[in-house]
Design goal:
single chain; Muramoyl-pentapeptide Carboxypeptidase, domain 2; 4-stranded antiparallel beta sheet
Length: 210
């Protein structure tokens, strides 16, 4: 759920966003949320139903009540991606420091090793999958990482085209960062994928599948 700063600001000013922000600090019941937000129980339940449908909250357990137990709610792992993170900035600075310490060849090798390790983490899920299924798994993984990608064909060649690069914080200043995705996709799909990214005023991520 890669969202812009403007989207996040607007979301967290909404009641749904305020519910999510409260649940990030600790699990809460409908009554507790209603008290914090100065809303009716039914209004809170409506927001929780909506957030649950979007996969952002879940039932976490129960607390003892005066008449009956009260259900407690918590945010999901998916919801964590909605909250602002400094990962991109930190990663960009880290790569900048590493780039000063390593020769270009060693830096490129390091980027590929990162991609291979990410792919290796996925290997149990890929066992027995065909090439076509592995490509679909690669597209899903890119989405989970915060990007969006599609499979396309042109001039007799197949490409994975990215929209919203999950590594943009790095690749904007260090083109070697694209090698992370190249090695990751090669490991997932099981063939030597080649980075063919288009750079310039209108950049586009492209990876050719043999």
């Amino acid at each position: 759920m890669m969202k812009s700063a403007a989207w996040r600001e607007g979301f967290f000013e909404s009641t749904r966003g305020r519910v999510l922000a409260l649940l990030q600090t600790k699990n809460r019941t409908v009554n507790e949320l209603a008290d914090e937000l100065q809303l009716t129980d039914n209004a809170v339940r409506a927001h929780l139903v909506s957030l649950d449908r979007d996969g952002l909250v879940r039932r976490a357990g129960t607390e003892r009540g005066v008449r009956r137990p009260h259900v407690t709610y918590a945010i999901t792992e998916e919801a964590e991606h909605v909250f602002p993170k400094a990962y991109g900035v930190l990663l960009s600075h880290f790569v900048a420091i590493v780039a000063k310490r390593l020769e270009p060849r060693a830096l490129r090798a390091s980027m590929r090793e990162v991609g291979r390790r990410i792919a290796a983490d996925q290997s149990p899920k890929l066992k027995g999958q065909s090439k076509t299924q592995r490509i679909k798994s690669a597209l899903v993984l890119l989405k989970e990482m915060g990007g969006a990608a599609t499979l396309s064909e042109g001039e007799g060649r197949h490409f994975i085209r990215g929209h919203g690069c999950p590594l943009s914080a790095v690749t904007a200043h260090h083109q070697e960062g694209c090698l992370i995705a190249e090695a990751l996709l090669s490991g997932i799909i099981g063939v030597p994928v080649k980075e063919r990214c288009i750079r310039g005023p209108t950049p586009s991520c492209r990876f050719e599948i043999p």
